[in-house]
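INPUT
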Amino acid sequence: MKYGIKRITCDLIKKLKREHMKQYKFLLIAIAICLSVASCKKDFFTGVNINPNASTTSTPDLLLATVQAALGYTQGGDFSRYSSLLDQQVFGYQNQTQVFYKYQINAGNFDNQWGDIYTSVMENNYTLIQLADEKGYNEYSGISRLLMAYSLQLLVDNWGDVPYSQAFQANKGGVITPSFDDDAALYDTIMSLINIGTTFLNNPDAGVLTPGSDDVIYNGDAGKWIKFGHALKARLYIHQSKDDAAMATNALAEANMAFTSSADNAQYAFGNDQTSANPWYQFGRDRQAYITFSNSTIADMLTNLDDPRYPVFIDPDNDGGALSPSGTYFGGLPDYYGAVNAPVELITYDEILFLKAEATLRLSGDIEAAQAFYQDEIQADMRKLGISGADIDTYIAANGTLPGNVTDAIAKVSLQEYIALYLNPEAFTLWRRTGSPNLTPTGTGNIPRRYIYPQTEYSYNPSNTPQSTLYTPKIFWDK
Amino acid sequence: MNKIILLLFALITGLTVTAQSPITGVVVDDNNNPVPYASVSIKNSKVGTRADENGNFTIAATTGETLVISAVNFAPQEVQVTGASGFTVHLKIADQTLNEVVVTALGIKREKRSLGYATQTVGSDELSKSGTGNMLSELNGKASGLTVINSSGDPGAGTYIRLRGVTSVTGDNQPLIVVDGIPLDNSINTYEPDNGIGFAAGTAGGLSIGGSVATNRGMDINPNDVESVTLLKGPAATALYGIKAASGALIITTKKGNAGQHALHVNVSSSAAFDKVSQLPALQTTYAQGNNGVYQGPETGQPFSWGAAIDTLYRDGDATYPWDKNGAIVGKSDPSAKTPVIPYDTYDFFVTGMSFDNNVALSGSNEKSSFRMSLGNLYQTGVIPKSKYVKNSFSISGQSQLTNKLNASGSINYINSFNNKILQGSQTSGLMLGLTRTTPTFDNSNGLSDPADNPASYLFPDGNQRTYRGIGGYDNPYFIVNRDPYTSGLDRVYGVGQVNYQVLDWLSLSYRLGGDVYAQDDKIAYDINSTNFPAGNIYLITYGSKQFNSDFTVNLNKQLSDNLSGSLIVGHNYFTNISNTHFTNGNGLVLPNFLDVSNATAFSATEAKTVKRTMAFYADAELNYKKMLYFSITGREEESSTLPPENNTFFYPSASVGWVFTQLPIFQNDILSYGKVRASFAQVGKDAPVYSLTTPFISPATFSDGYTVGITFPVGGNAGSQISSTTTVVGNPNLKPENTYSYEGGFDLGFFKDRISLNATGYYSKSKDVIIVSSVPYSSGFAAILVNAAEITNKGIELTLNTTPIKTSYGLRWDLNFNWSTNKNKVVQLAPGLNQIRLGGFGGGEAEVDAIAGQPYGVLYGTTTPHSNLFDLNSPLLIDDQPTDAAGDPNPEYGQPIGGGVGPAQIIGNTNPDWLGSVISNLTYKGFSFAFQIDVREGGDIYNGTVGALVARGLSAKTANRGTPTVFQGLLGHLNADGEVVHYDKDGVTELPGPGTANTIQSVYDENYWQGAGNSVFGGQDVDIQDGSFVRVRQMSLSYQFPHNIFGRNHSNNIMLTIFANNPFLWTNYNGVDPETSLGGPANGQGLDFFNNPGTKSYGIRLNLGL
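OUTPUT
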């Protein structure tokens, strides 16, 4: 049938041509035009179905730049906003954030952040890993695995069981409804990603493509990435250290191989344009006064502590961008966290110091050793934020002594870590793990202990997506 | 004037009139009543004349010649000239049902009686009554099985059309528009800038919730050029058109000059109309801006109107107060209190829209040739200041019988239009959003008499915006119309050329080539200090489109025996469409009020080009036995460039049968004058969207979380590319064609010589392997994948009843016609593992329009207010029985329904109407005629998010009852940590499963209730699902046809004056913006009202002048 009609028509025309050349000349021209255009070349049809405006290939530097920006934007965006609303570092003033603040939260609230991290961050990163491995770009293979490990940690700490082993197959003809992997097992997966990534970074293949300015976080410094791997491992261990001395030991060991100064901090600095701006800057600009800062719980804590970081965190005259007098229209967050090109912090040196203090306390109960880390942290965080040495000294004199009891000491360390982790999703994890600082619920019901799985997952992956509430099932380390 | 034109025309065409001996006669009907203005001509010559109003004519003719006498509604008659004068010609009324000819697929003209499927034709007289300038919207209610939805009443607003049901899930469901045999591009070219208020990034593109009122390009057609529109409703009628007409077709025939009339005609039509807003949500004017009953002025940025009662407030008279010339607002007892506060009427913003439609057409002919030229100008201003649409159109068509065997014809149309659109919907620069949320104590116009043209209404001297929320929040509506302009310009040419060659009396060949080319230039600008883009932003977008269509057909027509005749058409079709879009974005403006892209500081640009080609061979065979039994089969083999090579050629057939049973003597009687039964089967294939086989990398990378504008590369000097983001659809190299199988049956009956005629059609169709953008969980790494998986069925009934209750010999006539249709569709399945897909709306737990397996296409889905049975929205509401919250503070929701929309997301409504109906009446007497049309829609839910959001902010009139005590109806209980319904035992501590007893707790309609469970924006969306049923007077008109001889005996004329009203009356329980507006515009996701721009009603006058 396929070619039947064409062939019959062709024969008929040939016959007509022979027999009635003159009479039908002008018609034959018309026929010839339409048939020659449509002649037996399949190419004529299939050849045009190639998108001229999109490329079938990419390069590792283009993908790495995308993955890092997407990670910075997603963490500094929804992850940061939602965790900060729940752990009360910010205040939900109106609209969606207002109801979220009161725990009137539904599955749909989480679609965007889940979607961004799985697609813009992790799918692109998965593609980068494959490309780098295939071409032998070892440093890219290493960095991309560490970024994958970090992204997966964000997911597990907020949702517990999540898809990973069957994820990222939709464009390869594979699974489109991935199953959910066990959260504890995913921690092993993260460790393994870090280990393999570190191995690659220890063997950067000289002479092939290596990252430079496309690596906004570390400018291609493999040594710093290896430290980042240790920092992330230390974080994973400390999460599990509550009743597990071995985990505290591991955490301390990894922390000792991690960052040695704030210069090692893993953070993503945004661009200067409106379309490459820091996500908190964008939120203040696009969603004025959805979130405000001066009426948050952390604002009260800082006031009570007479903390010099208050004006770095909060500008009461420009709160959430709502009440700004003309001239200073954007933001609501002061510059360190809210400038157009402000960095979003992933893991910082001060967090590592806290982690050492906490691990020390859990392991040996050595208050003195812990207090040294504790004071170093306050120093490191405040110096990073540009607090004057005199103010730091005053503050440490007032708040730098840990109580003699391990439990109280952990609470005090955690309070300072909570402040240091301003707007970092890790602060929510910290609160869940240590119960410090002591927070009062802001809505009906208790403070949530996890996120609900997103509505899109319930809608499009219903057979695999577990039931969840804001409290159950708990993340495996949340005891 | 007429004479000069005639003279000119005579010079051009060399028309001459030979003088011969005059013959006189009179034309009468069966009852010997004179037939006025019949056309009288001599056969095979150029000579012709026209009878006068009494039927008398004089013509110069010689003996032996044949006169041809014809008149409207009568069958033509030939009379041999015998030399005698003063004879009488009896004309018989044409049996219209017997001989009515309709245009079918590919422009093939068929006797209507021969068709085995349903068609309906709408004539020019029905289309040109109102002067809206939009032919598609004028079709509303004119036929059964037809759904027409306007995006809004804005000038240049788009029109969504559907014939019968839907056959595609995420693809286009609108019918193909064919003008004089060539398919016309009906694209919607619109851009929705990432806006500050879009909620979820969503699953796949094309889900507009903001932006502007979308325009579809089908509205470029000048209604004054249209002779008729034939609706080919189902696949049986359109099978020959193939893939492009799988959703039916509108076959538009344009007006032509009529050869053989030897006359030159000038037609002028002019109309002027005035537009008013049709329906707006009611606002309260009792309470001021503020919160908790306390007044907070604009300087506080307070978005809500939960302030003090306005009658307790005074102005202090301080003329220097920047927010109001009457001074700041203070309490009654304040020493500075001067005058009581008088609330402002927010809706004073709207103005009277105006519409002027002028057309001149010139047509002429001689024996062999004819032409028609037409020039049109439509000038419309809307009810929103600055909204505007101007369209100039020019067309010329001609045809000539070049030789006895060769006929050539062609037409070309040029359209130039300019549209100043107004931003709408869910964005902070959306007009209705900023306007209706304005608190009643704030005057957007700043007390100015011409606020739309005076920047002092919307700007402070320092350049900041003056809005009721301080200097931000939402744009001042006057800022929107002046500083956020969305302009769209269009230049378009389309045309067709055709030659027919009659080889033998039973064999003809024809070739037709058509082209349609346009460039649409859009510019969307946001000035500095707009809330959407405070730094300013400009988009320049050029949409270029070219499409060409070629058809070559061989037509055979033969009387096979005395009783049997047959026809066969064999054809070849080639079609190509090339579109090219250029997109430039300039961000960060330097100077305010200089909306030129050179004023920007950061730039990005992209292009998008698509090429598509299809080719087909087709055949159509018809057999006709005794003009009684008709049988027809068609087949089409199609090849499309968008499918994989191994699957890109596909064949589909159709067959139909029609039996005019009244041809049999036993069925012939005085009551039933005509009867036919018909049945058909058809299959139609459909290809894939272009470039849907692969998943390429996209550069520059861009992503957003729906709350903020997001990131677009470059970032910090780095370029970025991506394979995926939250909107990426994965291509599929294994796609194959879709197929729709359709079965249709019906009958046509005429009674009492067609005083009553009834057409009834029932149909069932099943679409299989429908290609859908199937949402996948993001954990797959992508948003969606293209698959051949969905199945949709449609079944429906269409009835048309035309009656003429009164028809008298003295000229009184009353025609009364009814259209009624119902369609039930069902999404049988979507894709394995996929039960739900978003067609429009917000998503992310907010109201959306979905296709859900097992449900009708287009159900509303969203979160709910907890009911005592969570999944039964008819069960009593759950009333919160928790006196305190977890912290021990009093629970403000105690004794009220539970807010926050924490009930499960589920189906909350169905946007499909139960049925659509219309009544069209036309009463004529002598020159007068009075016509009206009433449209009825029964059922069809609408999500009234407009009122929901206004309730939450204390602006809706519903909230004026604040403070009124009440006991909310429902059962006591609450949701436990697992989301299950529980209630407290008597001890107030123990939670027992299920709801408790009926609520008796005294509560109040307070701010907490209206901000919680009382609205759908912060509460469950089920709260604001409303029945969209309406009865609407679509049109009323009164016309007077002047006598045909007011310029003297020999100058017949056709002058008609009409006064008309469009949409003058609306009865509906729906209380949002007009139930016929649509947030999504001409798109699949209908049934959403979220700050749509309003609909309109209009009143006008129209003059038609034919000479």
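end of record. DSSP finds 20 helices and four strands in chain A.
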